[in-house]
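Collaborator request, handled under Task 6.
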Amino acid sequence: MSEAAAAAAVVPASPTAAGQAPGVAVFDGDWTLVSVDQATADLLGRRREELAGRNIWIALPELAGTILHSFLLHARSVGERVTWRGYYPPAGCWLDATAQRAGDHLHVSLRRRVGPVPESRTDAVADEGDRLRFLAEVSESMVSTLDPTKSVATLVDLVVPRLCDWAVVSVLGDDGAPTDAGWGHRDPARADDLELYLRKRVRTAVDDNPMVTALFTGEPIHLQALDPAIIEPAFGGSEEVRAAWERLDAGSITVVPLRARAETFGALGLINGSARPPHSEMEIATAVEVARRASLAIDNARLYGRQLAVAETLQRSLLTPPPQPGDLEIAVRYLPASSTLHVGGDWYDAFQQPDGATLLVIGDVVGHNVDAAAAMGQVRSILRGIAYDRHEEPARVLTRVDAALTGLRIGTLATALIARLEQPPELAGSGRRVLRWSSAGHLPPLLLHGDGRVELLASEPQTLLGAESTAPRSDAVAEVGAGDTLLFYTDGLVEQGRTGIDEGTDRLVAAVRELGPVPVDRLCDALIERIVGPRPEDDVAIVAVRCSAQDGAVQEGGTPAG
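C-alpha cells returned to the collaborator:
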C-alpha cells in the first residue's frame, strides 16, 4: 500500500492514568471473547464467567450501537493501533480504549478515565443519544427499498451534510470494475460541478487513489489533506474537469468500505471542504458503523436485482412470442405482481398445430413466486407437448395433461383454458371460424363482435388441473366471424383493486365494449392501463386474437371484406 493509503484513521494514544492497570480483552474473528481479565469485566459490569467464551454482542447486548461498538468495528477493519476516549452510557463512565489487530485476533485494553474530562456528562449523554438516533435512522431508512439505485441515494442523503460536505458511493460491477453508483453535495450550486467531475474524470487504478485502495483492501482510509499528485491523473489534461474539481474545494477525505457477507463490494467516500475540519476519530467510527448498517441493505438490493434479472430471463424463456398466421392478429401480455419477483404462475401460449389450426392457452398456477414459475414451466411444457402431439379436442388434451401431472407427481394446482381456432373446409373463404374450448376452472373468454357487442363465452364449470378428479371434461363451441376479437385473461385482470370476480368481469366487459375494434396490441395495453395500472396486485396474462376478414367474406354489420 502507498504512503497515502497507509494514512488511515489513527488517533494518538491517551496518556496513561497513573496507578491504574488497564483491563485487557481479546476477541477472535467471530467476536468471541477468547480472553478477558477481571478489570475488563468490572468495567463492563459483568462477571468474567459471563463473558469468557461468549460472543460479545450476545454477552453485552447493550453495547450494540454505542460509540464503543463503532470503535471496535473500526479497530477490526484497520491494521494499525487505534485509540478512543469517550463516554460509555451503559457503564456510566468515561473510558480510554486502545485496540490493535494481531492476525485474526483483536486485542483491546480499557481503562476508566480519571481526572478532568473534555465535556460534561450531560453533553456526552446528549451527543451519544443524538448519534444513536442517527444510526437508528440509517437502519430504518436503508431497509425501506430493494431498489439498488434508491438504496445508494438514501445512503448519500443520510451522510450529507451530517458527516461530510459531499459524498460518493462506488460499487464493483459484475466485471469487477468500480462504478460511481451515487453522489451528492450539500451545496446545490456545486452539484453540477460534482457530476461533471465524476462523469468526465479519467478513472485510474493507481495505489494512491483512496477509493480504489479502500475497495481492494477492505480497510478505511483517512487523509487529513489531499495530495494534488493523487488527483492530477483524473483530470486527463482536461481544464474543464480541473476547474470543476477546484470549485469543489476538497480538503480532506475519509473512505469506508462497504462490506457484506465477507466481501467488499463498494466504498463510501466522505469529503470535507477546506472550511470544514478533517473527520475526527469519533466521526470516522460513526462512518464505519453507518457503512456497516448500510452495506447489508445495499447488498440485499443488489442481490435482489440480480435475482430479478435471472427471474425475468426465466420468464421470457417460458413465455414465447405468439405466431402470426396470415388470417389472425395475436397479441400477448404478461405483468408480474408488483410485490414479488418478476415471475409468477400465470402464463399464456399460442401455437399452430400440424393441421393449421391455432391453439390458444391461458392458465394460472397457484402461487406468486419462483416456485410458481417453475411449476408453471412444467405444466406449460407438458400441455404444449401433448396438444401438439396429435389432433384432439381441447377437453381430451386437458384430460391427458391431468393424467401426466398426476403420474409425474408434479404436485401443483392450476386453472387452464385451451381453445382451438379452426376453419373447416365448409367455411373456407367465408371469414367465419369455429372456436372450440375447454376450461379447467378458468375464467371464460370474451368475444368482441364486429358490431361492438361483447359476449361472455361461458361454459360448464370443470375441475382444476392437478385436482386428481375423474370427472369427464367437455368442450364448448362458438362461431367467430370476420373482424371479431377474442380475449383470454387471468384473474389478475378482473380482481385488481380487491374487486370480486363478477364485478371485475363486468368492468372488463365495459372496457372492451368502450375500446371497440382497436388493434389487438392497443387493446391489451389499454386494458392494462385502465384496469391494472403500474402496480399489479396479482399476475396478469392476456391473449387477444383478431380474426381478419378474408376475400369475399362479409363482416358483421354487412360490410364486405377487402
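The cover message to the collaborator said: "The first helix runs from residue 3 to 6. Residues 1-19 have pLDDT under 50 and may be disordered. Please let us know whether this matches your experimental observations."
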